[in-house]
Amino acid sequence: xxxxxxxxxxxxxxxxxxxxxxxxxxxxxxxxxxxxxxxxxxxxxxxxxxxxxxxxxxxxxxxxxxxxxxxxxxxxxxxxxxxxxxxxxxxxxxxxxxxxxxxxxxxxxxxxxxxxxxxxxxxxxxxxxxxxxxxxxxxxxxxxxxxxxxxxxxxxxxxxxxxxxxxxxxxxxxxxxxxxxxxxxxxxxxxxxxxxxxxxxxxxxxxxxxxxxxxxxxxxxxxxxxxxxxxxxxxxxxxxxxxxxxxxxxxxxxxxxxxxxxxxxxxxxxxxxxxxxxxxxxxxxxxxxxxxxxxxxxxxxxxxxxxxxxxxxxxxxxxxxxxxxxxxxxxxxxxxxxxxxxxxxxxxxxxxxxxxxxxxxxxxxxxxxxxxxxxxxxxxxxxxxxxxxxxxxxxxxxxxxxxxxxxxxxxxxxxxxxxxxxxxxxxxxxxxxx
Amino acid sequence: xxxxxxxxxxxxxxxxxxxxxxxxxxxxxxxxxxxxxxxxxxxxxxxxxxxxxxxxxxxxxxxxxxxxxxxxxxxxxxxxxxxxxxxxxxxxxxxxxxxxxxxxxxxxxxxxxxxxxxxxxxxxxxxxxxxxxxxxxxxxxxxxxxxxxxxxxxxxxxxxxxxxxxxxxxxxxxxxxxxxxxxxxxxxxxxxxxxxxxxxxxxxxxxxxxxxxxxxxxxxxxxxxxxxxxxxxxxxxxxxxxxxxxxxxxxxxxxxxxxxxxxxxxxxxxxxxxxxxxxxxxxxxxxxxxxxxxxxxxxxxxxxxxxxxxxxxxxxxxxxxxxxxxxxxxxxxxxxxxxxxxxxxxxxxxxxxxxxxxxxxxxxxxxxxxxxxxxxxxxxxxxxxxxxxxxxxxxxxxxxxxxxxxxxxxxxxxxxxxxxxxxxxxxxxxxxxx
Lengths: 434, 434
What we know:
The structure is a homodimer. By secondary structure, chain A is α/β, with parallel strands linked by helices. Chain A has 15 helices and 13 strands.
């Protein structure tokens, strides 16, 4: 299936940000707006794109090229009439696209998950429009295109609707019917895409699809640009984030990732950086002495924060790989091990009691098995059957606190108890939820 | 979909084993023959059964009841003509079964996996017969029903075929057509099921399905009974079994499981028993002294052997549960941890060198992460891209050897190196195979 992207308009209201760039090329968290649209569709399985360009179209074509850099194929259509209604841009694709196709706007930012669900729908005639039925603070209702629905059909669409049920999100799954509909609309004096959709709606051929909890933003001024950035970052918070992650690590790591996405640093490099910090932390414990122990503890917490960045950057730049995620999880375990090894040695040096090693062993076992049991346990967390999650974020935070206060022997005892108790709790919880 | 099971015959040639039992009730590795057939079909998703009984039918009905004990529904049909051809037994189900159905013999033992594949096939008319195209030593070719095939169709079937392509395994996926076919066959003087199948074959309505590498046995005398037992046990050897498991642990654990299936001991109880042995092993190391260390090492190896039995018994008695497998894997990790903890303490007591603890830590980390990486790695092993597997079986065997020779410090160093090197090897192998 092909995707058609409309990237012809000028975007006057965002000139501050765009400077001399056409709006689709405005950079947002490491990718230009149109790159994000293309990669979102790619993630949902689309490999062929047709981009309609107009205002500064050459710049867009130069940037995206034939699409091979993104692992897709991109063809272009130039629309010299870009100053007129956007229905004309869509109409330019007539004859170049057959069967059902995805239609998107180059300046909309949205949760890529919506496409995966949408593309599963069948469209023989007419089409499906993604709409937003929630009242969201950031939407400029005045300027938005509204829709009125009845059952599964769209009954009316337009900016001027007084009574409406949702907002047009600018994402469509369409059949070729739309081209005739736009022509019909143009004949009656309306050259917008909404005009064409309205023609289909009046014939009872336009259905809707609710975007639900997922976010979307029509970027057309500085304010909505900032909203898009904020919502994109917010979407990186995981359901399985523990309390320390949610309130401390994630807010910091998101700020770091926001910077890192504009560099060439890869997610795997970040994973190894976090790992190296943990290794250094473990080694510093071996130096002994309060100052070293405190520094080592702080370093452990820093590595815990950095450890959030690899996944964030990967998701923001569509560089997620199954191997990358797995590699990260394996080296995180080694990182945990080295830190606890260092703590055990330091405790033993201080207390000269072999029980430091025994508790170190138990803490290591408990920690590694926390991660081992997490695979099953997180399925339950995601189903919202359990809300509290005692994980790596909490462990490393406790280690930092224990190291700063010099109570590392006590911290090892505490970790031995809490991590292993947590594992037993999980064994029981999983038993009752499978 | 329903399954029809023919359990009407007498089975004269197996009287030695059956004594006063009807053949379908002869116990084999913890389950009677017919129970195994029912549970195999249940595992493939079948929930409704019709059993045709004849010789000592009452005993069978008493034993199986309404099937609720097996989580299925069982109805019975009595065939007073059980002394005549088995086509009559099948014909008794006419009118009681609609649409496609599975037909099996109560005295056949086979790999349950075959049903999962077979039931995915569609059958509108005629049917599909599972055949064996391999020459297997244990099959009594003289007495077997042979088939001749052409393309995907069965052309002829019968005991007397001189040229043939495979053996009838006694497992069928049939449409209701078979009832008319049997009636037609009876009219022409042949009251066997094969007669009916032959009628369908001649009409080009009978297809075949190759059982492939999977085992099956028609149990009709003492020799084939023993073959069935042997092949069932052999099917428990896993592709991911490491070398020590394959040549030492598995042969012993299979002998133990063969005994355990006839008791009420559950797989989970066996898991906990193996775990307890490891815990005791770990504690005995704390006693110190060569004798204690040697005993602890032996106990670790014994627990490794017993650890194979839980899965074996579970699979033999259809008691496999996802939770059970997971629980086993989690407590195995604790078992590993306790043994290595004990070894580290004993090494430290002997050498009075804290490096014993450091290597203990590294060995523990390497061992636990062996299991952590195994989840991904085993996918590659199963695809036969890699043959060697360094796993728990090898680790515990090395621990036993090290303990018997008193070289536990050296063993910890060795395990630290080998387990962590193996993890690095896996990181690289998985990278190149995903």
